[in-house]
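Input structure tokens:
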């Protein structure tokens, strides 16, 4: 009769258990020195070896000829336990036997001496499924069992166990097995079973198993059913999954706002009969890797990547801010939860979510606002850097100041060398090809508020203008047309504006020049204005 590979290759000794050396070394020592506990608690994720170690422990403490803490596997006790013909080792599934009566049966029979072995062993799997009354019935027996009785409790959800149960057991936490260990085990099993497999395919299977040996071997058996060499392409085909390259192209399309590529990626996934939920989970997984690369100082400690994969992810991560990645992850998670509730709208939901990820303005949530603010801050940072570079270059030549008259409509400019004028972006459309070193005025909102209380007739004209300061501290106001400036003059706005500046600033503001300028075209703007126009358009 055919036996599943994960059962066929289940470890028979502690030495064969992979990735749990911190546990098996202790169990071997206790068995070798006959100092084993009366109750053990094995906890950890699925497929990491909890039940396997429980069965090995049952054989080891009853073995007639133990070998350095391992069962020999040859004596009558080991053979009978392995075949499951002995009554002194009871394995119970608490998921289907979780009532108080099941525990009472154990409590009533535990007092009897074992019939064939040295010790009676009770293995209770998924123990967290026991009812409250069943736990209460187990307490006293678990704390003070007969000398010949040993309890081994296994669970995947330790948080559901009462503290009174946990405190009565020797606890062992089974870790997820690393991808490297899983890969080597799969390669060994494949060689023994005559299965052809690429090393990259074995590593891919190991990653898909997410730290579970049983899952890894089951996936290997699934792929081996094709009766041909197992490659990465075969693994993706068998599991209905997409490759990292495909996921990276989707994220690249999000960064480029390439909507056609996004619709095509979703369409291809649907046409190939792939489950969009699996497609979505892989996308979330890759975003998680990007977020780690973006925020961690040592991402290699938390990621299982080859050098080429790491290089691709580094390139992708450089195109997003941490706020944007966090915003995208939140949207992907929300969409996945909706997909799991309804199968009919998966494609529509996937396409809409990807489109919204390309443009934060399509979402009014808090995460979207944070992403937009972060993008704005990044633009300001870049502009400040360019401005500092320009200021450094301008030091090389003596600037010639043009003394402006009060209310002049020309912005003061500085002559500089030819290289500076040619290289500095934003100088192309300035008068006489001279550089503008203007910075946004920071107290704009407070001044407008004061101005509105002094002269509400002219406040809207100032609100629509661009506000800047030059290196001499003068105020430069840039309006869209002459009409705004004429109305300010006619309604006495100049004096009220200066009064508002004084109330917000300090006495030094009384000596600054206020200059008005008309910007007839958005292209006629210096580099500092780019961020202001971007902010105005977004608002």
């Amino acid at each position: 009769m055919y036996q599943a590979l994960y059962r066929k290759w289940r470890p028979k000794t502690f030495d064969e258990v992979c990735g749990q050396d911190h546990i098996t070394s202790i169990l071997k020592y206790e068995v070798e020195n006959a100092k084993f506990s009366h109750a053990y608690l094995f906890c950890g994720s699925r497929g990491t070896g909890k039940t396997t170690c429980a069965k090995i422990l049952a054989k080891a403490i009853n073995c007639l000829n133990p070998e350095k803490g391992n069962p020999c596997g040859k004596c009558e006790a080991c053979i009978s336990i392995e075949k499951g013909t002995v009554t002194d080792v009871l394995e119970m599934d608490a998921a289907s036997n979780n009532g108080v009566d099941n525990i009472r049966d154990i409590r009533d029979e535990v007092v009897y001496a074992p019939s064939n072995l040295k010790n009676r062993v009770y293995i209770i799997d998924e123990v967290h499924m026991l009812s409250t009354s069943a736990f209460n019935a187990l307490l006293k027996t678990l704390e003070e069992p007969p000398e010949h009785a040993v309890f081994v409790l296994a669970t995947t959800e330790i948080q559901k166990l009462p503290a009174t149960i946990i405190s009565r057991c020797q606890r062992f936490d089974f870790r997820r097995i690393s991808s490297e260990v899983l890969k080597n085990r799969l390669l060994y099993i494949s060689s023994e079973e005559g299965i052809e497999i690429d090393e990259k395919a074995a590593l891919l299977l190991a990653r898909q198993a997410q730290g579970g040996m049983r899952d890894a071997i089951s996936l290997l058996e699934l792929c081996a059913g094709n009766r041909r060499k197992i490659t990465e392409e075969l693994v993706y085909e068998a599991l209905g999954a997409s490759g990292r390259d495909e996921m990276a192209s989707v994220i690249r399309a999000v960064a480029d706002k390439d909507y056609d590529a996004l619709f095509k990626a979703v369409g291809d996934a649907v046409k190939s009969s792939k489950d969009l939920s699996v497609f979505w989970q892989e996308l979330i997984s890759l975003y998680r890797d990007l977020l780690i690369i973006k925020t961690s100082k040592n991402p290699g400690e938390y990621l299982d990547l080859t050098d080429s994969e790491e290089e691709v992810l580094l390139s992708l991560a450089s195109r997003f801010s941490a706020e944007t990645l966090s915003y995208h992850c939140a949207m992907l998670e929300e969409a996945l939860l909706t997909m799991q509730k309804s199968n009919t709208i998966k494609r529509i939901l996937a396409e809409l979510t990807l489109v919204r990820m390309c443009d934060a303005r399509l979402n009014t949530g808090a995460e979207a606002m944070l992403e937009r603010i972060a993008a704005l801050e990044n633009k300001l940072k870049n502009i400040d850097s360019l401005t500092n570079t320009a200021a450094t270059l301008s030091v090389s030549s003596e600037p010639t100041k043009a003394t402006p008259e009060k209310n002049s409509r020309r912005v003061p400019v500085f002559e500089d060398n030819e290289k500076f004028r040619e290289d500095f972006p934003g100088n192309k459309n300035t008068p006489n090809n001279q550089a503008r070193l203007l910075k946004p005025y920071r107290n704009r909102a407070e001044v407008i508020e004061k101005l509105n209380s002094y002269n509400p007739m002219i406040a809207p004209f100032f609100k629509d203008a661009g506000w800047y300061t030059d290196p001499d501290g003068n105020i430069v106001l840039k309006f869209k047309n002459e009409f705004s400036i004429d109305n300010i003059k006619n309604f006495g706005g100049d004096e009220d504006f200066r009064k508002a500046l004084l109330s917000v600033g300090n006495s030094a503001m009384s000596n600054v020049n206020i200059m008005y300028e008309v910007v007839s075209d958005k292209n006629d703007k210096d580099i500092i204005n780019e961020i202001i126009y971007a902010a105005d358009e977004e608002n």
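Residues 244-363 form a domain with the Zinc Finger, Delta Prime; domain 3 fold (CATH 1.20.272.10). The beta strands are 39-44, 89-93, 120-125, 149-155, 170-174, 439-440, 466-469, 475-479, 514-518.
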